[in-house]
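Q: I'm writing up a methods section and want to include an example of the input and output format. Could you take the sequence below and give the corresponding predicted structure tokens, formatted cleanly so I can copy it straight into the document?
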Amino acid sequence: MLNTQQLMDQAVLLAGLKEMPEDCGIMVHGENIKKVLFGVDMDTPELLLAKELGYDCVVSHHPRNTNKDILNVLNDHVKKLAELGVPVNKSQKLLAKQKGSLGYNGHVSNSRRSESAAQLLNMPFMCIHTPTDLIGEAIVQKHLDEKFANKPETTLKEICDAIEEISEYKNSERKPVIRVGSGESYAGKIYVLMSGLTGPGADILKEYFEAGVGTLVMMHIPEADAKIITEQNIGNVIIAGHMSSDSLGINKLAEKWAESGVETTVMSGIVK
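A: Here is the clean output for your methods example:
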């Protein structure tokens, strides 16, 4: 048995982080957790379901916390780009546009809806976002690096096929798709980008390509950004899939909790 803080600590540790990111949180604390209900999007209906079925805690992947600094998670793109040689001052300024847009949306959201329901139900409730994204990102990057280590002329179709070798993608109804480029396009440097809160916008994605990335493998991309990148004509984008990509890290974390005696049931978009 674990408490909610210990569940969170294991997620942070498994992702290789030193502290809990701002897009994670424990909204209702709990002790002696034996059974967890974990899904991509967990709200009042899922909280009621958990109560009815006798679960001790509900975990949502997508943020349900109210941290005013949640947009700081976008700064992960500044760090990633710095590792690729992009000056931090440049990417920071380019990222400001996306932060501004997301700030408008976040300011008007009903941010305590799920939390208030959990409090009324006395149901321990958490959200774990970036840690599981990082876990999934690392799994896909490692798989592709090993698969194409000695194949410099890898095509986008070959990457899509390789992604489907991972069970969460193989068993998903929505298969990997090429959003920028074609099946015959050479990939160049393959970079898996599945963390950082959400899509950073076309300006930041362009920086990845200009820093030497040939193909970005992502969870999702807005149509408008895909069109801009197509017009730039300098890189490729493969969308591995949203729910399947989220499932990768969630399933690994559920396995970790099981080692501590916590039974985890996955639902709400999770692919096994």
